[in-house]
Specification:
CATH architecture of the largest domain: 3-Layer(aba) Sandwich
Number of strands: 10
Number of domains: 2
Largest sheet: 5 strands, parallel
Order of helices and strands: EHEEEHEHHHEHEHEHHEHEH
Structural class: alpha/beta
Low-confidence stretches: none
Strand order of the largest sheet: 2-1-8-9-10
Oligomer: single chain
Mean pLDDT: 95
Shape: elongated
Length: 237
């Protein structure tokens, strides 16, 4: 049995926590980000296509989606598509294997979009890759920034989880995004344990996060086969 530091928001970690426990390991909750809804507005009432770049974008974008008309719906990956289906929204296409802006842009159904009005539902800030790629084919692209990721306030949960985690030289840290890793580093630094955490391997969801983790001083970084919870747990086997 090894300790696994889970850094997702508390509202999104339940399934992974259960899988880690069922696999015979010890899940330790260390949430680094809180998801906060933003009041967003849009420029028009009709779009040719809407794109959701995360499950959070779906949850917090439903109010705006109900106010507009659209012809096509795209998702950045399977988890986002599933969340749309949960709201009875049909998804025209999404990358089947790897969830990323690059994978979405490579889809024939997306690359063929030209001179269209496109609305991207996303969190505040983030990468511009998708917008830039769509604009290359003369699409008019705007954002609905419907949520923000805020670094958590240090709590007793953080202190206790980190104390248990660092009591064993063996363990893994699960990371889902660059922002997630930033939050981990901020909180660990407040507890004077950032250097200690860099001795443990990270489990990340993409090569992009791996490269960022290396640049932050984490030398042991494992990329999962896909972005599912099961893929994270399979690294522990």
């Amino acid at each position: 049995m090894v300790n696994v530091l889970l850094t997702r928001p508390l509202t999104q970690v339940v399934a992974l926590e259960a899988l880690v426990a069922d696999s015979g390991h010890q899940p330790l909750l260390f949430p680094t980000l809180e998801i906060k809804a933003l009041e967003a507005s849009v420029e028009r009432k009709q779009y040719d296509a809407v794109i959701f770049i995360s499950a959070n974008a779906v949850v917090h974008g439903m109010k705006i989606l109900a106010q507009i008309s659209y012809s096509s719906v795209f998702a950045v990956g399977a988890a986002t598509a599933k969340k749309l289906n949960d709201y009875n929204i049909s998804v025209d296409d999404f990358p089947q294997e790897k969830a990323s802006s690059e994978a979405l842009l490579s889809l024939e159904s997306v690359s063929c979009l030209q001179n269209k009005k496109i609305l991207i539902f996303r969190g505040k800030g983030g990468r511009e890759t998708l917008k830039i790629g769509l604009e290359k084919t003369h699409n008019q692209v705007t954002y609905a920034q419907v949520y923000d990721r805020v670094i958590c306030t240090l709590s007793e949960l953080h202190k206790q989880s980190l104390k248990v985690f660092l009591s064993d030289s063996q363990g893994f840290i699960s990371i889902t995004s660059n922002e997630n890793l930033d939050g981990l580093m901020v909180l660990a630094k407040q507890l004077n344990h950032l250097d200690n955490l860099k001795n443990y391997p990270l489990i990340v969801l993409s090569e992009r996060i791996k490269q960022y983790a290396h640049s932050c001083g984490f030398s042991q970084v494992i990329v999962t086969q896909d972005i599912s919870d099961q893929a994270v747990v399979s690294v522990l086997a």
